[in-house]
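Repro:
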Amino acid sequence: MKTRALVTVAACLLLAGSGVGSAALGGDASEANANWTNTGGPVDESGFSRLRQINKANIGELGLAWSLDLDGEVSLEATPLAVDGVLYFTGSYCAVYAVDAISGKILWKYDPKIWQRSPAKFGSNFGVNRGVAYADGRIFLGALDGHLTALNAKTGGVEWEVQTVPETSRHTITGAPRVFNGKVIIGNAGADSNQRGFVTAYDQKTGKQAWRFYTVPGAPEQNAGDPIMEMAAKTWTGEYWKVGGGGGTVWNGITFDPELNQIYLGVGNAGPYNPKVRNPGGGDNLFVASIVALNADTGKYVWHYQQNPNEAWDYKATANMIETTLTLDGKRRKVLMQSPTNGFFYVIDRVTGKLISAEKTGKVTWAKKIDLKTGRPVEEPNIRYETGETIMWPSMIGTHNWQAMSFNPKTGLVYIPYMQLGARYATKVKPGEFSFGGMTADGYKADDQDGTGALLAWDPVRQKARWKVPLETIWNGGTLTTGGDLVFQGTADGYFSAYDAVSGARLWRFNAGLGIIAAPISYSVAGKQYVSVLVGYGGTTAALSKFLNVGWKYGAQPRRLLTFALDGKASPPPSPPPDMAVHAVDDPSLTLNEADVKQGRGLSMFCIACHGVGLKAAGSPAPDLRESQIALSQESLWAVVHDGALQDRGMPKFDMLTRDQVNKLHAYIRATARESLGLRKPEGDTGASSF
């Protein structure tokens, strides 16, 4: 208990001395207003609110204060901000909402209409956005098409806008910006499409670029004169810049350290995945799957720590990173904590970038351990599918993904949305499998625990679990922890729960009527504490639908913002229950040409991200095409797929496809529908994904 007490004291001392005001920290219950001004709450990204009006003793009195239905939204991943009585958050396709924090009334809404502004980029990713940033009366939005926009926080009016990525690239933005020192920083997604990663900082007032940092090297002429890129390029082999951009995109985790004036970047996976294609001579491939520290004023490199040298499994360091001070071996250490996809929990010295400790949080088979002297993993054999196939844990979605973990300095524990699932990677593509770059990747189950999740309380000092709450679903929401000794989390089965932060006992839960993947927040207005969470299951559920599908049909359940308070008496409108059945439709008069079906199957690669492998995603984040009346007709399918008839509702147009190609895609959809109706023998789809 002595060590734990030291952890608590050290962490609280850091919070008090970091220069972060009580409003940014979540404040105390005695304050009239306590804000949540950053995606992770405090600047340390801890997801911790010091508010304690709602606590273990009175949690049974928590009720719904108000709800707001969000028509037209689908996947809701954003963590709202709370600033002086107003909530700010984003929808699926980057619309920004400003909502009165007491009544739930919409004050203004800004819709960038990315489907109209950038139709090509609109089709580069499924529609998700993880939120906005706030500073000095401005809201900053990073949109899917790569635009960064500054909005007036009171009116929603545009103050400035810049395009942060090349117009013709496959870069997109899904993450929230961060603000610091008069600047706003944004990264991008696109590693799965082999795009080269980078982050850019802009002046908050003018939108003028302050600096840019690339996270992987480019062609030799691009690296020339840049000592950091020249250093990184030495860890890549072959003509990697011709194969693809290398990946390493920073699409989620970014943390600002006001004590050290540093920015920490969570860098993503490599692209292409297969290192034999990308990196034929071997090498670490800096800075993929790494944490990189930069000087916040100049954007210059300070240090890096790489979690997965020569990454080959879609592992990434993009999860949120929490900064704090821990007492370790009797010494106070400024640390950065992360639980990335690869299954280890890392504690890193944020001054030097040196690894302090790393342990497995669950089922991990790709490495025996992390060598604390070198900081490198002690890898198992054949993990890069050298023999043509590898089965290992965790899967590409990891033991923890973008859904935020939180840290409570009172308990000294980190609360992690944990997942367990294996993966099969293969360069020998079997009949019926989809291939991507000459390989396949898919989730893999070996026991009853695979495909499930948990709320995991992790002790970062002892590097072991303190408690664990098993969950039947795997793709669950981020966590919030509070000064009331509580942990809040929403889950895929549609429940929003509060747990005892010390013991893990479930103390309260609410049926939200739809799965939750976003993280909650807590704030106070006029001395009253509230807890809010966005409800909208989806995101990457299509790519691994056979593991992540829990029966939420597209458009069947309303997407909502729910806000709770003590003695809340509101009741949300009813929501249909989950439905795992496939209600396929068919046109018996249609005769299918088998050659068309086969070619249509190949063309369905355009559809996988939203409609699932084999078009078998059961309704989230897009309709199940086997159930679609639109997909019954070649003409209506052409109008939607080629002409973009439903762009304003989230369906991109693919006008590069010919009429003949769309007709063949139609044949494949009809074949899959008949398979689900038992009218046709399945063609051997395995569910393998080009994830």
